[in-house]
Structure formats: C-alpha cells, structure tokens
Design brief:
Elements (H helix, E strand, L loop, with lengths): L2 H19 L3 H7 L4 H9 L18 H11 L4 H11 L3 H7 L2 H13 L4 E4 L15 E5 L2 E12 L6 E7 L10 E7 L5 E3 L13 E12 L13 H37 L1 E2 L2 E2 L4 H30 L5 H25 L9 H9 L9 H14 L2
Parallel strand pairs: 1-4
Antiparallel strand pairs: 2-3, 3-7, 4-5, 6-7, 8-9
Helix pairs in contact: 1-4, 4-8, 4-9, 6-8, 8-9, 8-10, 8-11, 9-10, 10-11, 10-12
Bound molecules: flavin-adenine dinucleotide.
Flavin-adenine dinucleotide binds next to strand 1, strand 3 and helix 12.
Length: 382
C-alpha cells in the first residue's frame, strides 16, 4: 500500500482500538466474548482481511504494514486480535500461498469481509511442538477423502465456518513429508466441537477441541492441486513464520499499554507522602521495561523489512517471537510489582494483562522451539 493510503488505515485502527475496544475490556473479560458491535465494526473496517490480497477483498498489507497494525491491535485485550488473527494469519495465509485459484475465490473474499471465520487445526495431543507426531488421517476413497482425528486448543473453533486441517495422507514413517492440508467446511457430518477451553487468560478468545469422525470431504478440499498431497508441513511452517511476526508485533503493542498503565500508577499512587515514581527502585522497573520495549519494536520493524525484501523469513521471525514474547512477560511481571498488592487484584488491568501475556510464549511455537530454529540456522546455514 502507498504510505498515503496506509497511514489513514493505521490511524483508524488506532482510534477504533482505543475508543471502542479498550473501553469494553471489562465487559469482554466478564462475559468472555467480543461484543457483536465490535465484530461488525471491525468487519466494516476490513480488519478481518488486512493481510489478505486486495484481489480477494483484503487490504493487501505487506508484513511491514501488518506488524504496524499488529502493534495497534496489541494495545488492547489480545482476545480482540484473536478473533481476526486466524483469517489474516495462520489459516488465511495457507489458502493465499497454497490454495488453487478456485479455493482462493471460494474462501478468501468471505474471510476478508469477516462473513466467515477460519480456524487452523494443526495441534493434537502428541503433535504440538512437533507436527511429525500428527495422527489425524485423511484417506482417499474414490472421489472423497475421509478424515479421522482429534485436534486440540483450536482458536475460533466454536465460531469457525472453515477448518484448515492438517492430516496425514502418507504413512507414519514419512514424518513431516506425509502431511497434507484440507479446507473443511464447518457443519459437515462427523465434525464435533468440544466445550470451550477454560483458559488462564485472554477471555473473549475461544479455543476448543475439534473431532473429525469419518468426515467425508470432496477431493477438491485438498488445498493445492489434485497431486498436492504432502504439502501440509511446508504450508504450516510458512504460515507460522509470518504469524510469528504478527505475534511479535502484538507483544510490542501490549507491552506499550502495560507500561503506560505502570507509569500512570507510579505517578498517582503515593507512599511516604510521595508518588512511588519518586523512588529510584520503581523508576528502575519502568526504565528496564522501556528499554526492552524499544529494542523489541526496532527488532520487529527490521525483521519485517527483511521479510518483505525476501532477505530472511525464518531467523528474524523466530528471534522476534522469542524476544518479544519473553519481553512482554517481563514487562507484565514488573507492572504487577509496580502496582504492589493492587496488581494482584482482579479487575485491575495489569492483573489481567499478566495472565493474558503468558500465552505468547506458548503458541505458534514455544520459546524452546524458537531457540531450536535459531540454533539450527546458526549451525547449518551460516
Ligand atoms: C490458547 C491457545 C490457542 C491455541 N491456538 C491454536 C490454534 O489455533 N491452532 C493450533 O493448531 N494450535 C493452537 N494452539 C496450540 C499451541 O500451538 C501448542 O500448545 C504449542 O505449539 C505447544 O504444543 P503443546 O501444547 O503440545 O506442548 P508440547 O509440544 O508438548 O511442549 C511441552 C513443553 O516441551 C517443550 N518441548 C517440546 N518439544 C521440544 C523439543 N524438541 N525440544 C525442546 N523442548 C521441547 C516445549 O517447548 C514445552 O515447554 C493453541 C494453544 C493455546 C494454549
């Protein structure tokens, strides 16, 4: 997008987040849902498809633009971004990069407009960090594939219209090479969604188990060409690579918000007749958070630039995801400390943020997995 087009979009997202979502954070937390009015307005603004190509109704943001929007979305409860995240990111990008023209035409306009929600179904009980353990099977029977298996922790599963499902079409011994990916319409016989997971934080974002029991999908549900079996692992890794940039940006935006709350509290809360911000040990906590936030923001912008330039799409995203997700946890931890006992009490924003932030080190590749990716690059590709 031209700068002159992108800056107003960014400004509109910023205003919307601050005026319409931040003001409803308590309601989202208490009711564990994003209000319809917020979903509808986000759809009207194009937020369900900001990272999808323009020819399918998206805003066509580059990764550099995607991360700047991510930093704005990160300013509020991460549940809001979660509602939009699977369409723009991990699920939508599989269709963008691997789908046939017919599959893209069928799904992307619906995803971009927010008329449909996509869920990304990779994780299973023994296939989280390592998809090679994947047991869900898709067997070709005539002009159908028959899917059987159980996926867990699937974001947006309870509201999904399409499941992007990773399933084994080859024998177990083929490991990552025997994995394919399917676009499975919700509501098909044999699909069942479990109860919503009772999570530690990020209320308003829903995850659940998804069971496929003899689900018979047409052969053109296989994402890619008809001989495209075995592409699933690459499709997952490519989507997750870009997804890591978006998560890193969210962490930056979220850390900024958490620090603002901490600074405001340090200025207003008094001990010994003075604001606690007068005490140098409190100042040190704020300064450490600010310095880390500065570094994280610069890192995300540089990794995004390299991503767009095609210079690096693996090392940068993993370094950024590792650093930013660990950073926001430290910032949230210090924020509770700055608030003292108040920071431990429900309904105080930093108490909620502390729980919300913890997820970033876990999903879309744990910190340990990011370290393995980084080390592998250093040891084998430099
Ligand atoms: C709220 C939430 C939303 C999610 N949304 C989705 C979604 O939409 N779609 C989806 O497919 N998944 C989703 N996930 C799943 C998430 O991506 C996985 O939980 C994550 O990848 C970790 O996998 P796991 O839970 O199986 O843990 P495990 O892989 O069992 O890991 C447990 C521990 O072992 C470590 N470990 C594992 N393997 C290694 C290794 N080789 N070397 C060193 N350490 C290792 C891990 O780092 C971790 O510390 C979600 C999870 C949550 C909690």
């Amino acid at each position: 997008m031209e700068t002159s087009e992108f800056e107003p979009v960014l400004a509109a997202v910023r205003t919307f987040v601050r005026e319409q979502v931040v003001t409803r954070e308590d309601e989202i937390e208490t009711k564990d849902e994003i209000p319809d009015v917020v979903r509808q307005q986000a759809a009207r603004m194009g937020l369900f498809g900001y990272a999808l190509p323009e020819e399918y109704g998206g805003l066509g943001c580059s990764v550099s633009e995607d991360v700047r929007i991510g930093m704005e979305l990160g300013y509020t409860t991460p549940a809001f971004r979660s509602m939009l995240g699977t369409n723009n990111g991990i699920a939508g990008q599989v269709l963008v990069n691997y789908g046939t023209e017919a599959q893209r035409q069928r799904w992307l306009p619906l995803l971009a407009s927010g008329a449909a929600i996509a869920a990304f179904c990779l994780t299973e009980s023994e296939a989280g960090s390592d998809p090679a353990g994947l047991r869900t099977r898709a067997e070709r029977v005539g002009d159908r594939y028959v899917l059987n298996g159980v996926k867990r922790f699937i974001t947006n599963a309870p509201i999904a219209d399409v499941f992007v499902v990773f399933a084994r079409t080859g024998p177990e011994e083929t490991g990552n090479k025997g994995i394919s990916v399917f676009a499975v319409e919700a509501g098909m016989p044999g699909i069942s969604i479990g109860p919503r997971d009772h999570k530690m934080g990020q209320y308003g974002a829903w995850t659940a188990e998804v069971t496929f029991d003899d689900v018979r999908v047409p052969v053109d549900a296989l994402i890619g060409e008809s001989d495209g079996e075995g592409e699933g692992f690459h499709a997952a890794m490519r989507s997750l690579g870009r997804g890591r940039m978006n998560i890193s940006a969210l962490c930056v935006g979220f850390a900024g918000r958490i620090l603002e709350e901490s600074v405001a509290y340090a200025k207003s809360n008094r001990q010994g007749g003075r604001p606690i911000g007068d005490y140098q040990l409190v100042q040190a906590m704020l300064a450490e958070s600010q310095a880390e936030l500065y570094a994280a923001r610069a890192m995300v912008l540089e990794a995004a630039r390299q991503y767009d330039a095609g210079e690096d799409r693996r090392l940068g995203p993993s370094c950024a995801k590792l650093f930013c997700s660990e950073m926001v946890d430290r910032v949230a931890d210090r924020a509770v400390q700055v608030h003292g006992g108040v920071g431990y009490i429900r309904s105080v924003p930093v108490e909620r943020f502390y729980r919300d932030a913890r997820l970033f080190r876990l999903y879309e590749g744990t910190s340990e997995i990011q370290k393995l990716v980084i080390a592998k690059h250093l040891l084998t590709e430099t």
